[in-house]
Each structure stands twice: as C-alpha cells, then as structure tokens.
Amino acid sequence: MTLRCVSDGVPTSTLTWYKPDGGKMNSITALQNTVNVKMSMDQDFGVYKCDADNGLAPPDFKIVKIEQTSRSFCRSFIVNCFELKFNLIS
Fold first, then answer.
1. Domain count of the chain?
2. CATH number of the domain that 82 lies in?
C-alpha cells in the first residue's frame, strides 16, 4: 500500500511520515513524500501521520487511519489476507 503526503508550502516543507507506534518512517524536504506500507501484521494497522513543517508556525499534519475489518481465508501461501478500510481523519 502506498501513502502519499503532499505540501505546497513556501518555503518547501519537511514532510515526515510516522507509523502507528510513533516511529519515524521517512523524512524529506520536498513537495511530496511517498512511503510503501506492507500490511502483513496486526501492528501495521492503525494511525499513520504525516507532518509538514517549513519552519513557519503552526506546522500542518494529516492522519490516515487504516483499519483491519476482517481476515479472509486465503487459498495460497500468502501469510495474511486482510480486508482494509481507510479513513482520512484530518
């Protein structure tokens, strides 16, 4: 799954993605920051946050909540199969 954070701030913002456990995933000073998230374990689900900070107050952020709504039975060698639900919170 790909999550994308976009900012048009001037000066250019530092965009930082955070995992549901609060750990930093990726930080870059650019117009967009894209991260790939593997939804293979229960802890991969939850709230992902992107902070956009260009040094001017206040910094902006967006939150994406990814919920596991059910586990499907899989007839393959895939470790986990999930049905996903996405919510853009802010």
1. 1
2. 2.60.40
Could you tell me if residue 40 is left (phi over 0), alpha (psi between -120 and 50 degrees) or otherwise beta?
alpha
Residues in the chain, total: 90
**Sheet hosting strand 46-53, strand order edge to edge:** 24-29, 14-18, 46-53, 60-71, 82-88
Amino acid at 32: Q
Under 8 Å between Cβ of 71 and 62: no
| Strand positions, DSSP E, 1-90 | 2-6, 14-18, 24-29, 32-36, 46-53, 60-71, 82-88
- The mean predicted confidence, pLDDT, of the chain is 83
pTM over 0.90: no
58 vs 9, 34, 51, 55, CA distance in Å?
12, 22, 11, 8
Q: How far is CA 11 from the centre of its chain?
A: 23
Which residue segment(s) compose the domain that 82 sits in?
Answer: 2-88
